[in-house]
Amino acid sequence: MNLTHLSATDLAEKIKNKELTSEAVVSAHMKQIEKLNPQINAFITVNQKAVEKAREVDQKISRGEKVGRLAGVPV
Fold first, then answer.
1. What percent of the chain has pLDDT over 90?
2. Which long-range contacts (CB under 8 A, 24 or more apart) does 10-18 make?
3. What is the rounded CA–CA span in Å between residue 13 and residue 18?
4. Do 57 and 21 touch, CB atoms closer than 8 A?
5. HEC profile of the chain
């Protein structure tokens, strides 16, 4: 499954249902950006702390804490 081809809604649902981790989703998107951005120059900046923030979302979900509707979905 290519995580970069799923919709934000599908990603959010899978993250909240613990079918995917936010860290895995964000890492997949970061790799895709690294691969394609030199050719398309779509990103001015990329938040290098995104994976760290994704881990925080995963921890909140694992503890049963409430998270936002799109928590863990890269934007």
1. 96
2. 11/72, 11/73, 12/69, 12/70, 12/71, 12/72, 12/73, 15/57, 15/58, 15/61, 15/71, 15/72, 15/73, 16/61, 16/67, 16/71, 18/61, 18/62
3. 8
4. no
5. CCHHHCCHHHHHHHHHCCCCCHHHHHHHHHHHHHHHHHHHCCCCCCCCCHHHHHHHHHHHHHCCCCCCCCCCCCC
Instruction: Write the burial class of residue 6 (CB in 10 Å: 0-12 exposed, 13-18 middle, 19+ buried).
Output: middle
Model confidence pLDDT, tens digit, residues 47-65:
989 999 999 999 999 999 9
The confidence band for 5, taking pLDDT boundaries of 50, 70 and 90, is very high
